[in-house]
Design brief:
This protein is an alpha+beta fold and about 325 residues long. The protein has 2 domains: about 5-125, Phosphorylase Kinase, domain 1 (2-Layer Sandwich); about 130-265, ATP-grasp fold, B domain (D-amino Acid Aminotransferase, Chain A, domain 1, 2-Layer Sandwich), CATH 3.30.470.20. It contains 8 helices and 18 strands. It has helices spanning about 5-15, 70-85, 105-110, 145-150, 190-200, 200-220, 280-285, 300-320, and strands at about 15-20, 25-30, 35, 40-45, 50-55, 60, 60-65, 100, 120-125, 130, 135-140, 155, 160, 170-175, 180, 225-240, 245-250, 260-265. Strands 10, 11, 14, 15, 16, 17 and 18 form a 7-stranded antiparallel beta sheet that branches. A 5-stranded antiparallel beta sheet has the order 3-4-5-9-8. The protein has a two-stranded antiparallel ribbon with strand order 1-2. Keywords: ATP-binding, Ligase, Nucleotide-binding, Purine biosynthesis. Pathway: Purine metabolism; IMP biosynthesis via de novo pathway; 5-amino-1-(5-phospho-D-ribosyl)imidazole-4-carboxamide from 5-amino-1-(5-phospho-D-ribosyl)imidazole-4-carboxylate: step 1/2.
């Protein structure tokens, strides 16, 4: 490598990461093909994907200018915890396949950029053909499910008993799929609508797998004093031969960004519950003068610290 090549490589490495003033990793720019979600930067490694969980945080469909330091590493570690439970059969009895290969920074990537900011926040994952529906499981009545129940007495075509209160536990978990929106909100749909789009056999398999994962994960969490109110899963088809393709779970799984976690000792139906997530951020934004139609404001240091602590508390109770 000549001196010009070395200079070019050093320059690209120094431009690979963008942090905010609090030290949160807001963006990665590795010299690889990239697409960005609200939280994750996804790179094409050829046969596999490199999924980087940044410290970005979103609210009301906006990515905020402030991040939550360490959040991405916690999400990655929590997903790894649940994927390990699938591998050892604690979740799904050995029937659940997933996309995670490794949480180590690949050597090829470490040669391109300084690997230190990536450590603890990456997943090397199998490529899969994504099923275009979110697989939502609800064990308690909250969020969009609570609003739908108040309007019609049902959620996504699932009729529920009259007289339920906000955050009541359901008699048994229900499967309530939604579309996957590229921007804005996903749309809740009935199982029948999902079956029309994905096929009845695929949809039935996804419902069975989703309920299985939720019930096993909810039992594990309950042993640690945590209630999983609801969660959403993403699945994809994996395999080169169409005849041998199988459904595997992809993306993050059972994290505070994809699930609603409550403390069992604080649980009281009939009102909203404190969650182990970005609740402090949402409440501060609602109380601010932000109109939710323009670029959002930076978060105060106190809100960032409280939010980081809440994510950490949920992680420690579940995984620690």
């Amino acid at each position: 490598m000549n001196s010009q090549d070395k200079s070019s490589q050093t320059s690209s490495a120094s431009d690979a990461y963008r942090f905010d003033s609090e030290g949160a990793l807001l963006e990665t720019q590795l010299p690889l093909p990239r697409r960005q979600g609200k939280v994750r930067d996804v790179y094409d490694l050829g046969d596999d994907l490199l999924i980087v969980s940044t410290d970005r945080i979103s609210a009301f469909d906006y990515i905020l200018p402030s991040g939550i330091p360490g959040k991405g590493a916690l999400l990655t570690a929590m997903s790894r915890f649940w994927f390990d439970r699938m591998d050892d059969g604690t979740i799904g009895g050995g029937k659940i396949g997933h996309h995670l290969i490794s949480t180590d920074v690949p050597e090829a990537v470490a040669k391109l950029v300084d690997p230190e900011p990536l450590r603890g926040r990456v997943m090397v994952a199998r490529k899969a053909e994504v099923v275009p529906f979110e697989c939502v499981v609800r064990g308690y009545l909250e969020g969009s499910g609570w609003r739908a129940y108040q309007d019609s007495g049902e959620i996504c075509g699932v009729k529920l008993p009259a007289g339920l209160r906000q955050c009541d536990q359901l008699a048994s978990p229900i499967f309530t799929p939604s579309t996957k929106a590229e921007a804005g909100h996903d749309e809740n749909v009935s199982f029948e609508v999902m079956a029309e789009g994905a096929g009845i056999e695929t949809s039935s398999s996804l419902r069975e797998l989703s309920l299985m994962i939720y019930q096993d994960a909810a039992r594990i969490a309950a042993e640690r004093g945590i209630l999983i109110a609801d969660t959403k899963f993403e699945f994809g088809w994996f395999g080169e031969d169409d005849a041998a393709k199988k459904l595997i779970i992809i993306d993050e799984v059972l994290t505070p960004d994809s699930s609603r976690f409550w403390s069992a000792d604080e649980y009281e139906p009939g009102r909203s519950q404190r969650s182990f997530d970005k609740q402090f951020v949402r409440e501060w934004l609602l109380a601010s003068d932000w109109d939710r139609n323009s670029e959002p404001p930076k978060l105060p240091a106190e809100i960032i610290e409280k939010t980081a602590a809440r994510y950490r508390e949920g992680f420690d109770r579940l995984v620690g």
